[in-house]
Amino acid sequence: MQRLRQWIQLIFVVLSNGYWGFPFKGTLYQGPLKVLCSPGLNCYSCPAATTYCPIGSLQQLLLGVRMSLAGGQVFIGTYVVGCIGLLGTLFGRLICGWACPFGLIQEWLHRIPSPKSRIPQWLGWGRYLVLVLLVVILPLAWIDEFDMGLPWFCKFLCPAGTLEAGLPMLLLDGDLRGSVGWLFANKLVLLLLMLTASVFSSRPFCRTLCPLGAFYGLFNRISLIRLKFDADACTKCGACHQVCPVEIRADEAPNSGACIRCLRCTGACRFGALGLDVAGYGLRISPPITADQPTHQEAGL
């Protein structure tokens, strides 16, 4: 299952960044696919990007609200909100574990042999703070003389944008290098910190700062695809705790907003207590108990 997940992650990376004509044309892709919403965090300004970023588009919608209202117009942005709402309703944070390019990069870095450390659970509230403050409130409230807001998350924080758009564009456009200032330097430092932290801790950006993960996590309990937990089959052996990349207890909160639905816990559970619920249909992913595995009674329960 994990090998399949890795292949699907790679496929989404290629599909989301499939425009390889940019080194020759020196421009961003503006073809028909650019109207499609990328399920994961993938910068619109990446030279290879063929789709738009859901968080970037949501910010663009919100930062122009005050100006449109001043002009007597109201733009609700049903397409942008509808796309990410539909993705959240269908998949929840499964997208984070199966389709996000920046999540895949963090996973690769975490494989580097090194001492590993846990991330305190309370830091997970940071992603909700980023979503509410940088993505929603500040673009609406902090406006310039033209009644326009700023894309705070994209401009000041997003490490995926720095990696996928900022650095490639500097390499391609020599004129941009002379305009690099403290803002890009700060974002570059943040990117390096996140990449370094990924070596020692599992998915630090996803778990502490990603607003898209926070948004999708709101749908985890109601999404079409969810984890299914059978309390009667659970032996409390803790196997699911040991393999979880976001350090949650699947037997206690199977559809926590932090769960990225990587399904490692379902493969680790030997008693069939964890599975996948797809539109009400249960799918068992864990292998069956073999003769050399303990039964419920042998496990002491």
Distance between the termini: 29 Å
How many β-strand stretches? 3
Order of helices and strands: HHHHHHHHHHHHHHEHHEE
Uncertain residue segments: 293-301
What is the count of helical runs?
16
What attributes does this structure have?
2 domains, mainly alpha, 301 residues, Alpha-Beta Plaits, 48% helix, disordered C terminus, three-stranded antiparallel β-sheet
Explain what this protein looks like in three dimensions.
The model is unreliable at 293-301 (pLDDT under 50). The protein has 16 helices and 3 strands. It folds into 2 domains: 2-217, no CATH class; 225-284, Alpha-Beta Plaits (2-Layer Sandwich), CATH 3.30.70.20. It is mainly α and 301 residues long. It is globular. The protein has a 3-stranded antiparallel beta sheet. The longest helix is centred in the middle third of the chain and has 19 residues, at 182-200.
Write the layout of secondary structure elements.
Layout: H1 2-16, H2 22-25, H3 54-63, H4 65-70, H5 78-91, H6 94-98, H7 101-110, H8 125-141, H9 152-156, H10 159-172, H11 174-177, H12 182-200, H13 204-208, H14 211-217, E1 225-229, H15 239-243, H16 264-268, E2 274-278, E3 281-284
Helix pairs in contact: 3-5, 3-8, 7-12, 8-14, 10-12
A few lines on this structure:
With 301 residues, the chain is mainly α. Helix content is 48%, strand content 5%. Mean pLDDT is 86; it is low at 293-301.
